[in-house]
Amino acid sequence: MTQPASRSIVLRSSHILLVKVIAARPGAWVPSTPPGLRSRKVELSVQIAETLRGKLDPAPGGPVSITVEQTDYAGELMMQPLRGSWSRIPIDPGTELVAFAESASGRAERVLEEPACRLVLAAEEVLPGLRIAAQALAKDLPLSQTLDLAALLMAKLDPIFAEFLWERYADDAMASQRAFDLLADFSERKGLAPSTRQALIDGGYRLVSLRADETPERGQRLALTMCRVLLIPDAADLHENLIGTYLPNLVGLTSGLPPQPASTVFEDREAERKAVEAFLRRHGTEADASPLLEWIRIK
Predict the structure, then answer these.
(1) pTM for the whole thing?
(2) Longest CA span, the chain
(3) Which long-range contacts (CB under 8 A, 24 or more apart) does 250-256 make?
(4) Rounded to an integer, what distance in angstroms lies between the CA atom of residue 27 and that of residue 91?
């Protein structure tokens, strides 16, 4: 069952298809609106290699012919977003793509063409996580089993999978501290791409921010995760936002969220508290660490 209101494109999509480009016949580029853009029609022949979500009816017996529109910039000025799910997508024969669609139809050509087709991505960017998500949905896997599968492919997971995790298991995470802890622990693991770790932190932060008054323990646990991420060298790209925005907001220093004393966040974890304090004293980002330093020193 799809969830139209979900932030996760996996859960919103009625169909997720892995397709392989067999042939492409692009038309000529023509000026488009607004000024500064150009567009073209492309006749594509694609093979449905795998159905990750949804059902095609009738099932294609061979290549599927579709016509898509691509939009691009007419010059070097790139100030506005490009419209269209197929824009700037490689269409060389042999290219594998993943198409996300929201369609009441099961016909492949309708699913793959706009407006049903909402997003197209290079398969290598998202396929490992999508296969785990597809299995979790098809078998209604509990969170622990989904994370066990994901742990085998840490470096290959992407932000779309991270968003799926928090959206799919949000109710579990709010109903059970153990479930929330599993997601928080996963966000701290070594080997995650920075963008994936960022998406995991975003998912937890969004959930806690929306429902902070219900279970303050979730905010405390997420604050501990953020502090631990500060000590992960390959997460350095995230440190400035954690210090300047996420942590001060989460612990109530710069937001209306319930205050989270450092003494509670680091209860029975004095060594970790000292390590984070030392990091904040020497950190080299542009964010001002003084509010967090004052917070972490109060026992």
Answers:
(1) 0.94
(2) 68
(3) 250/205, 250/208, 250/209, 250/219, 250/222, 250/223, 250/226, 251/219, 251/223, 251/295, 253/291, 253/292, 253/295, 254/291
(4) 13
Yes or no: say if 146 and 165 are a contact pair by the CB < 8 Å rule.
yes
Q: How far apart are CA 100 and CA 120, in angstroms?
A: 6
Model confidence pLDDT, tens digit, residues 85-123? 999 999 999 999 999 999 999 999 999 999 999 999 999
| Per-residue pLDDT reduced to its tens digit, 17-34 | 999 999 999 999 999 988
pLDDT along the chain (299 residues), means of 10: 94 98 98 91 98 95 96 83 93 98 97 98 98 98 98 97 98 96 97 97 94 85 98 94 95 92 96 96 82 90
Residues in the chain: 299
- Other C-beta atoms lying within 10 Å of the C-beta of residue 30: 10
Structure token digits, residue 100: 């996300």
